[in-house]
């Protein structure tokens, strides 16, 4: 698989990356050996770029996958920590849990509009860690096109991990939605300023999987994206992505999504009720915390709820 330099970092990454969120406790909660086997399969396929996070609780999958191997792997982790102390603890947790002296890339996780300045202590910690050599590159992950554009002007930012898909699902601008075109412009600004850019949610949290080739083709065609990160929970998913990248996927191929289900990420849900209003099956209800939940016995997996969610909390797993 072709590798590419990530902006001006000097770090070489594969065109596709492997995300471990879907296999972890927050989603499928796969056994460690089962998830590790998926990561090893991705490595064997030529993928050297792995995305994780403190919040995902997925370090054991990566550590076990790498045990006994000498792969030239680039690991990106991130933390929601708001201050210096919390970020320092997050970096040490990653180093200890992954059994690595150096974490290649570490990010502020999910920076929303107006938050970068509020998390200055955590940002200073990342920059200090880079200076000490325990992190090679620092940056942010975000769903917001304004935050992405802001990083083009941030001299200490090396990389940006941002959300984009052809339908614009989950792309934000302040308190409202934004378009893929707006995010493309922000990505281009980052690229011009020498930042490495890699993308998430090519399939809109699984909601665009039925349009697999259109969805993956779109993000791979955005010229200023260095690498496309895809969340994997099975070896077949790895093979599908690699086949598409290498031009070996049959025309008209559509993955089997019959066993997948809609799922709501409670930590992101704001309880606005938009999803309930568009669900014709009355499969969505408020749980005891006042957040949206899905009755799988009534859900038709039509996907109409996902675009109605302002915070991209509804995904297909």
From TrEMBL:
Keywords from the UniProt entry: Iron, Iron-sulfur, Metal-binding
- Disulfide bond as a keyword of this entry, yes or no, is no
Residues in domain 4Fe-4S ferredoxin-type?
260-289, 290-317
UniProt GO MF annotations: iron-sulfur cluster binding; metal ion binding; oxidoreductase activity
Q: Which domain of life is it from?
A: Bacteria
Pfam families, per database record = Aldo_ket_red, Fer4_21
Q: Which InterPro entries match?
A: 4Fe4S_Fe-S-bd, 4Fe4S_Fe_S_CS, AKR, AKR2_Oxidoreductase, NAD(P)_OxRdtase_dom_sf, NADP_OxRdtase_dom
- What PANTHER family does the record point to? D-THREO-ALDOSE 1-DEHYDROGENASE (PTHR43312), NADP-DEPENDENT OXIDOREDUCTASE DOMAIN-CONTAINING PROTEIN (PTHR43312:SF1)
Q: What is this protein called?
A: Aldo/keto reductase
């Amino acid at each position: 698989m072709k590798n590419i330099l990530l902006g001006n970092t000097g770090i070489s990454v594969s065109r596709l990356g492997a995300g471990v969120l879907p296999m972890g406790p927050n989603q499928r909660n796969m056994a460690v050996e089962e998830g590790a086997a998926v990561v090893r399969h991705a490595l064997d396929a030529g993928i050297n770029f792995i995305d994780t996070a403190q919040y995902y609780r997925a370090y054991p999958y990566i550590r076990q996958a790498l045990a006994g191997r000498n792969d030239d792997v680039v690991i990106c982790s991130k933390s929601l920590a708001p201050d210096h102390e919390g970020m320092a603890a997050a970096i040490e947790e990653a180093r200890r849990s992954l059994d690595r002296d150096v974490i290649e890339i570490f990010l502020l996780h999910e920076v929303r509009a107006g938050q970068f300045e509020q998390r200055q202590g955590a940002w200073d910690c990342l920059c200090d860690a880079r200076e000490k050599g325990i992190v090679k590159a620092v940056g942010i992950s975000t769903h917001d096109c304004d935050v992405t554009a802001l990083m083009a002007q941030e001299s200490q930012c090396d990389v940006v991990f941002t959300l984009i898909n052809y339908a614009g699902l989950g792309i934000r601008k302040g308190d409202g939605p934004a378009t893929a075109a707006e995010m493309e412009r922000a990505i281009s600004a980052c690229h011009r300023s020498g930042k490495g850019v890699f993308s998430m949610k090519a399939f809109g949290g699984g909601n665009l999987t039925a349009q697999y080739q259109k969805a993956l083709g779109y993000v791979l065609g955005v010229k200023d994206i260095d690498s496309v990160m895809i969340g994997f929970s099975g070896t077949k998913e790895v093979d599908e992505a690699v086949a598409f990248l290498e031009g070996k996927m049959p025309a008209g191929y559509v993955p089997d999504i019959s066993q997948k289900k809609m799922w709501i990420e409670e930590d992101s849900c704001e309880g606005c009720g938009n999803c309930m209003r568009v669900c014709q099956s009355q499969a969505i209800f408020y749980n005891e915390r006042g957040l949206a939940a899905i009755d799988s016995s009534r859900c038709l997996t039509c996907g109409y709820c996902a675009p109605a969610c302002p915070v991209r909390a509804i995904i297909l797993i």
